[in-house]
Inverse folding.
């Protein structure tokens, strides 16, 4: 038995953990539950380590079949559930299970005393299992199952604190964004993305007749290919050429013909042959089809990895408990999109050569641009936020943009490298932020017990204390030293300061952009490079701002003044993550590039560029300047002006508002979606529909009036919330109108049947009667 | 019998007319019993078509089908009239337009 | 005159459906003499019969060709029949299990309920097995008439009575169209035997193409009414709302199953030649259009519902649309096998899921004759976590989210549509199933993210068993569909020579 | 014009007129009688189409038994004056639409039938004329080839009988529902006694009257709405 046969355990152990907790959890103490959950996470990490060691020995991996999932030999459907062990999936497993384990441990402390402690860990284990299912799947459908399941867990965990919608009556603490709304929004926005992904899967199935990725590629790829070709699988195929060739991928008419090897090898073969794909009665060139597939996949990526234009759910998702933000919405789930593109590198590279889109863009270029623009935009927005977790959320979006841009540029190694280091330092930052919030809440309770009502009135907003608002903090350096230090390390890593992990990975991405521009002469490369350098500068600046605002200066509230350090179970994982964030750069240290070599086994288009000292120095210098600016603005003087404004708020004026209001995305949605609808509603409302009164009653009139009244309301707060809810509401209104047809009268129903009868008869008979 | 029997189409068209009249009755009458009677008219029209085709093919199959349709109609009548009686007891009316509590 | 011998009749293979009808008589006879405190024997006898026939039915897959016909070709005992029987018996099992305590609770504990349900089930099974239009028609009535009665059982509840009369009048109206359609098809083809029709149509021996198409269209109306396809769907929400919940649950699957079994039987076995796949017009485009309308209307209007039973009514309309998509795809000769097995598999998945959802609804329903509303689910995850979890599973399955039965079934149906070249239809399917997330999710949100009393009626063991079994079924079909796919793919309809 | 054609036109006209009479007469009784006339006309067609046995069945079973049942129910309910009561405005377009659809239906089906050029049927020979469609032949086919639907129809009639009994029978209170009812009555009594004791000045006769009223509807409506 090979070590790779252990791979099913990596999914089944967390499932066993959650079943155990679901079953006997209610009889156990918090400690018992915690042991089971963390034990399960830790064990699956050990399995991942074992797999990693097996691969490090030079083997190229294995596909481990689990069960015949969907099999219909008669019609040629065979979708097994098999797990794929190669360097790419093992990288993801190590990151997911490793970071996941640390966050589990941290959560034991963070969730201490929560009424639904057990439930929380059941969800967490479920998430771990689903995410591991996603990364181990050897075909698109299994991947999709995992993809949906992680979305579901995310939904459950965002809404976990549903009772936090209202301020705590005693201390006036509020829980931030409305949890249930945030959960719904995340779910619905993700469905939009999934929709693209489903279509991509259907198209793939249709073209290739299979959903399997194909044999493990890498060093042994060519040999394996021949083996399949000479094997008994395709003996019976009539098109077999005499020369021992495999089934020709193309029929004499130039139509692509699936050979049953797996999607990626077939895609390469088809592209090489330049054949056409039969879609119903039409024939489409394979290149066009791959472009469409990759673009549809990009829709899925923008949903899951929070890119423009579907990023809007992620900031609100911060309503969930902080360990969830760390695990799901920073370190693992949101990187699934990056993984998806990397996994499909063959398709994306194939699409790169097809020039059918305007401006000579190819799908990977679009991926890169989406990523780069997202990175830049989110970086600027983060500068003008008050909520500690919101800053980190936008920072996450920005960093995901870096990764997406990297994979779009073909820098798969750089993207994955940044994915791993980002998992370390972003998990660290979130957990440390959670530690800060916990400390401030604790301080608020403390102040409430000892001082009269001061804690209530001392919050930034009258009467309520938002423990996540950075304006309520300050001076925490002394009260929470461990948290302070790890936060600083995380911030340095994120800002890309030498020698922390972020420096190395970000530098590789910039290098890829640079090379794309200079060597391939691709203008996209230059554009991306400029955007990313800008984003990196903003990153350094807002992290500096955040650190100074939270930890330096004088405490701005009683709560901050009474904050205290958290127990070791929360701080130890932080220390481990801090260590990883410091040393993570060694993974792909220039000169050796161990990570690049490792990934090349499973990612055919992986490559690692050589370290460019000049570029690194430029990037470092820019980051340094940004940090220095932050020092000048937020450290030399108190971080807030005397009337509680940000130091930049007055000088920047409208620009600040622009940034604070997220580049007016809300307003854009308002103008692009809601306003036209509104106008249409008004127009229709003014039409005289009296002649319909008997039939549709006040249907149209009242309905559109109601829509108009709803849409004409106040849009100042949470407009995107309303867009999401609004689209739902509009559908609801439509539904409300449609049901006016349901009058309850038998005769009406019979009339509908009769109408149907005639419609059916006419459709069937008209061509016959008039056709001749 | 006559040397040149009537073309079968005539019977079928007549049955279509009767059928449509039955359907019309279902759509315009408000008395549940009459609605039901109109359904009987529709079945009856279908039977006429069946018998006509059975004559055309000189077969028994069509006639047997008529037999089944009649039996089924009898079963429907038993249930339908029982339902109507029950409704009448509760509501003192069999106007189907008053039976519109169930709607959105 | 030769009399048929027992061997010709081949009674043994008809046992699942005809035996069930006979067993209904036994249950009825016994039930007449049961004192009130022995009423549970109704349940025991019915379940016993269902389980025994279910096991027997498993032996009826892959019969040798000479045993696949019974009653002189009137009854077809192929794998399609066996698979339909399988689904029908599952449905009846849940229908009985779900009803027992509900009937007691609502004081309509009539012994007659059980035989009526069994007879109705046998009707559904016979629709799938029919080899002749006469059998199809009688089986349709056998399925429907007990349902009319069952809907009106809750006397003197005005809603129940109204739903029964509405269902009855419209049902009779639409079956008149079916009869007229049968007459026209008979007139065109000169036979009511399905394979005979097939042969005559293929050989060009029909009287008139127009008659045949008109007949096919009218039969489509009659069957479309049974499966609640737009625009023949309007009875559905009203009847679902008014009928006793246990009956609604049974009806939502039983009637649909019968309708689809009959639809596939007629259109695939007898009339594949006029499907119009390719360029001619035929029933394929018509069914595809109906499927599209059905999916859109069902899913959109369901959003506006507050009454759970009404919502599930519209949801059932929507699901009829999905299955119709399979039926439409089956019009293309080269995807016929795949489409038929996809439709059957979806029906099975839908049976487990929807019956489960209704079982939970029965558990939620209060004793005061008010219908359960969406808000009655608030906070259910606190008070009844297992029940809430099961309901969440059913809702996910109906939405089509892995790992549940629904997603596998939908995948096949979309695939079938795409293979048949109807990409637009598959697109509508995908979009509407995204839309459906709105209303299914609302129940999950209410259960998990809203505070509320969320009471279920006291612990009711039989209902619990039903919910549990349905949940297991939904889950198993989702994660290990292989077990049933094998059966479904063998249940392919072939027009047998005869 | 042959005899058959002549008969067809005459009887057909009567049949259509009878159907129209059924549709538009104000009295339920008249409608039912018109329908009987229509059925009889169709029975004549059956005879012309050499289906004598079915013609007899049509008269005895359909026109005889089933329509009598209809008449009986109409009279039982005293609803021979029909179509009274309110009609919603929203049903205003129903009638014109129904007429249009009915006409369209006739046109479409007639077009389908008439474009097909159905040949005239073979004339029946003398042997067929005496046996075809007779009871013997019907029975022979019914009990051999059509045995299965025949059995099914038997079950169907059983189900319909059960249904008629279940639906039309007065609701017989079960012990359980009786108990619930008794509980409710007891509560009412309790209330009444409390009211009585509280309103000491009032005479007891009122209370007794209320008690009787409360108990009276008990057996008829146990479940309530």
């Amino acid at each position: 038995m090979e070590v790779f046969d252990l791979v099913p355990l990596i999914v089944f152990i967390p499932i066993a953990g959650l079943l155990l907790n679901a079953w006997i959890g209610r009889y156990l103490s918090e400690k018992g539950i915690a042991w089971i959950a963390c034990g399960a996470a830790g064990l699956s990490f050990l399995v991942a380590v074992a797999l990693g060691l097996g691969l490090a020995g030079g083997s190229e991996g294995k596909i481990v079949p689990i069960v015949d999932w969907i099999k219909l030999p008669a019609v040629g459907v065979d979708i097994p559930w098999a797990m794929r062990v190669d360097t790419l999936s093992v990288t993801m497993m190590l990151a997911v299970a490793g970071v996941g384990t640390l966050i589990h441990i941290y959560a034991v402390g963070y969730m201490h005393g929560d009424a639904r402690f057990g439930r929380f860990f059941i969800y967490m284990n479920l998430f771990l299992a689903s995410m591991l299912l996603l990364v181990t799947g050897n075909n698109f459908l299994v991947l999709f199952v995992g993809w949906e399941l992680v979305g579901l867990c995310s939904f459950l965990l965002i809404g976990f604190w549903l009772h936090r919608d209202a301020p705590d009556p005693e201390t006036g603490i509020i829980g931030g964004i409305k949890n249930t709304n945030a959960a719904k929004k995340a779910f619905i926005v993700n469905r939009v993305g999934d929709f693209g992904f489903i279509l991509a899967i259907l198209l793939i199935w249709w073209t290739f007749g299979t959903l399997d990725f194909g044999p493990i590629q890498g060093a042994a790829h060519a040999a394996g290919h021949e083996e399949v070709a000479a094997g008994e699988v395709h003996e019976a195929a009539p098109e077999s050429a005499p020369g021992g060739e495999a089934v020709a991928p193309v029929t004499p008419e130039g139509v692509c013909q699936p050979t049953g090897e797996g999607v990626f090898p077939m895609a390469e073969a088809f592209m090489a042959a330049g054949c056409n794909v039969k879609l119903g009665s039409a024939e489409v060139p394979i290149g066009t089809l791959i472009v469409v597939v990759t673009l549809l996949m990009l829709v899925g990526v923008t949903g899951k990895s929070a890119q423009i234009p579907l990023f809007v759910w992620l900031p609100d998702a911060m309503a969930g408990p902080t360990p969830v933000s760390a695990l799901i919405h920073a370190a693992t789930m949101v990187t699934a999109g990056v993984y998806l593109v990397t996994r499909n590198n063959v398709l994306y590279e194939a699409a790169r050569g097809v020039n059918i889109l305007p401006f000579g863009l190819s799908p990977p270029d679009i991926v890169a641009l989406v990523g780069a623009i997202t990175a830049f935009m989110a970086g600027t927005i983060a500068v003008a936020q008050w909520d500690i977790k919101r800053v980190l959320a936008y920072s996450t979006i920005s960093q995901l943009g870096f990764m997406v841009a990297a994979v779009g540029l073909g820098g798969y190694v750089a993207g994955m490298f940044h994915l791993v280091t980002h998992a370390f330092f972003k998990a660290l930052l979130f957990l440390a932020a959670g530690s800060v919030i916990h400390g401030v809440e604790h301080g608020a309770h403390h102040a409430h017990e000892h001082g009269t009502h001061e804690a209530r009135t001392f919050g930034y907003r009258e009467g309520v204390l938002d423990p996540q608002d950075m304006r309520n903090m300050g001076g925490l350096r002394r009260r929470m030293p461990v948290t302070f230090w790890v936060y600083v390390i995380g911030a340095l890593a994120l800002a890309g300061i030498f020698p922390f992990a972020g420096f190395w990975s970000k530098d590789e991405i910039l290098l890829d952009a640079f090379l794309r521009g200079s060597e391939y002469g691709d203008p996209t490369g230059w554009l991306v490079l400029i955007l990313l350098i800008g984003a990196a500068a903003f990153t350094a600046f807002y992290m500096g701002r955040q650190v100074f605002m939270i930890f330096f200066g004088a405490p701005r509230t009683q709560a901050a003044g009474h904050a205290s350090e958290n127990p070791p179970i929360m701080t130890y994982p932080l220390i481990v993550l801090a260590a990883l964030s410091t040393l993570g750069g060694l993974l792909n240290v220039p000169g050796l590039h161990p990570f690049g070599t490792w990934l090349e086994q499973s990612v055919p288009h992986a490559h690692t560029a050589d370290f460019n000292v000049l570029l690194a120095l430029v990037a470092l210098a820019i980051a340094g300047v940004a940090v220095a600016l932050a020092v000048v603005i937020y450290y030399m003087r108190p971080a807030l002006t005397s009337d509680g404004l940000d130091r930049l708020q007055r000088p920047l004026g409208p620009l600040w508002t622009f940034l604070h209001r997220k580049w007016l995305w809300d307003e854009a949605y308002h103008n692009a979606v809601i306003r036209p609808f509104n106008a249409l509603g008004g127009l229709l409302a003014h039409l005289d529909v009296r002649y319909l009164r008997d039939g549709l009653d006040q249907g149209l009139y009242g309905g559109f009036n109601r829509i108009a009244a709803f849409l004409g309301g106040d849009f100042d707060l949470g407009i995107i919330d309303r867009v999401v809810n609004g689209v739902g509401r509009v559908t609801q209104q439509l539904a409300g109108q449609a049901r006016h047809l349901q009058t309850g009268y038998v005769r009406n129903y019979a009339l509908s049947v009769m109408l149907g009868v005639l419609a059916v008869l006419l459709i069937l008979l008209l061509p016959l009667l008039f056709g001749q | 019998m006559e040397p040149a029997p009537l073309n079968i189409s005539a019977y079928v068209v007549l049955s279509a007319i009767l059928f449509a009249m039955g359907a019309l009755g279902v759509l315009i009458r408000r008395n549940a019993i009459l609605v039901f009677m109109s359904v009987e008219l529709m079945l009856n029209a279908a039977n006429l078509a069946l018998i006509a085709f059975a004559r055309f093919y000189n077969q028994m199959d069509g006639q047997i089908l008529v037999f089944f349709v009649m039996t089924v109609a009898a079963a429907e009548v038993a249930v339908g009239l029982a339902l109507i009686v029950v409704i009448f007891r509760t509501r003192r009316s069999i106007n189907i337009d008053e039976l519109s509590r169930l709607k959105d | 005159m030769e009399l048929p011998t027992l061997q010709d009749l081949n009674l043994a293979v008809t046992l699942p459906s005809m035996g069930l009808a006979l067993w209904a008589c036994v249950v009825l006879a016994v039930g007449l003499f049961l004192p009130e405190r022995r009423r549970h024997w109704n349940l025991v006898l019915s379940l016993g019969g269902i389980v025994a026939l279910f096991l027997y039915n498993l032996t009826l897959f892959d019969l040798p060709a000479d045993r696949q016909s019974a009653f002189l070709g009137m009854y077809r005992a192929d794998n399609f029949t066996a698979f339909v029987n399988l689904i029908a018996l599952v449905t009846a099992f849940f229908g009985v299990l779900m009803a027992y305590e509900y009937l007691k609770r609502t004081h309509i504990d009539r012994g007659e309920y059980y035989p009526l349900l069994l007879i109705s089930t046998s009707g559904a099974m016979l629709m799938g097995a029919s080899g002749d239009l006469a059998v199809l028609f009688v089986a349709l009535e056998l399925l429907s008439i007990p349902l009319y009665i069952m809907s009106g059982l809750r006397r003197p509840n005005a809603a129940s009575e109204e739903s029964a009369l509405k269902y009855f009048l419209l049902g009779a109206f639409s079956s008149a169209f079916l009869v007229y359609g049968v007459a026209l098809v008979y007139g065109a083809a000169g036979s009511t035997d399905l394979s005979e029709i097939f042969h005559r149509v293929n050989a060009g021996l029909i009287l008139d193409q127009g008659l045949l198409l008109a007949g096919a269209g009218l039969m489509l109306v009659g069957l479309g009414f049974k499966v609640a396809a737009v625009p023949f769907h309007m009875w559905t929400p009203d009847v679902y709302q008014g009928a006793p919940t246990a009956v609604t649950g049974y009806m939502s699957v039983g009637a649909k199953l019968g309708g689809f079994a009959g639809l596939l039987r007629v259109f695939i076995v007898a009339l594949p030649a006029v499907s119009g796949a390719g360029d001619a017009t035929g029933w394929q485009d018509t069914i595809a259009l109906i499927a599209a309308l059905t999916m859109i209307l069902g899913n959109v209007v369901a959003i506006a519902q507050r009454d759970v039973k009404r919502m599930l009514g519209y949801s059932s309309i929507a699901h009829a649309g999905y299955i119709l998509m399979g039926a439409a795809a089956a019009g293309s000769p080269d995807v016929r096998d795949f489409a038929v097995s996809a439709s059957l598999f979806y029906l099975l998945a839908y049976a487990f899921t929807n019956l489960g959802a209704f079982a939970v609804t029965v558990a939620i329903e209060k004793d005061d004759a008010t219908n359960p509303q969406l808000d009655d689910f608030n906070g259910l995850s606190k008070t009844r976590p297992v029940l809430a979890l099961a309901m969440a599973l059913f809702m996910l399955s109906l939405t089509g989210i892995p790992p549940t039965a629904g997603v596998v079934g939908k995948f096949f149906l979309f695939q079938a549509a795409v293979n048949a070249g109807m990409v637009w239809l598959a697109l509508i399917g995908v979009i509407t199933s995204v839309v459906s997330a709105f209303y299914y999710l609302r129940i999950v949100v209410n259960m998990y993210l809203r505070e509320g009393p969320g009471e279920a009626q006291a612990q009711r063991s039989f209902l619990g068993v039903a919910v549990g079994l349905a949940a297991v079924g939904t889950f198993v079909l989702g994660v290990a569909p292989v077990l049933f796919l094998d059966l479904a793919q063998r249940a392919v309809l072939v027009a047998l020579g005869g | 014009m042959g005899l058959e054609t002549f008969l067809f036109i005459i009887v057909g006209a009567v049949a259509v007129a009878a159907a129209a009479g059924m549709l538009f007469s104000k009295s339920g009784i008249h409608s039912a009688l018109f329908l009987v006339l229509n059925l009889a006309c169709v029975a004549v067609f059956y005879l012309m189409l050499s289906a004598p046995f079915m013609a007899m069945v049509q008269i005895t079973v359909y026109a005889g038994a089933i329509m009598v049942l209809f008449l009986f129910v109409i009279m039982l309910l005293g609803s021979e004056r029909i179509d009274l009561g309110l009609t919603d405005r929203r049903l205003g377009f129903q009638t014109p639409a129904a007429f249009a659809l009915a006409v369209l239906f006739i046109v479409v089906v007639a077009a389908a039938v008439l474009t097909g050029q159905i040949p005239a049927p073979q004339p029946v020979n003398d042997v067929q004329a005496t046996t075809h469609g007779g009871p013997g032949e019907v029975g022979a086919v019914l009990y051999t080839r059509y045995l299965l639907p025949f059995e099914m129809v038997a079950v169907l009639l059983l189900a319909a009988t059960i249904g008629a009994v279940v639906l039309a029978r007065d609701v017989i209170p079960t012990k359980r529902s009786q108990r619930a009812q008794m509980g409710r009555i007891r509560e009412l009594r309790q209330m009444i006694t409390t009211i009585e004791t509280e309103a000491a000045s009032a005479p007891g006769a009122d209370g007794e009257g209320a008690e009787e009223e409360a108990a009276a509807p008990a057996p008829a409506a146990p479940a309530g709405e």
Remarks:
- The first helix of chain C runs from residue 6 to 9.
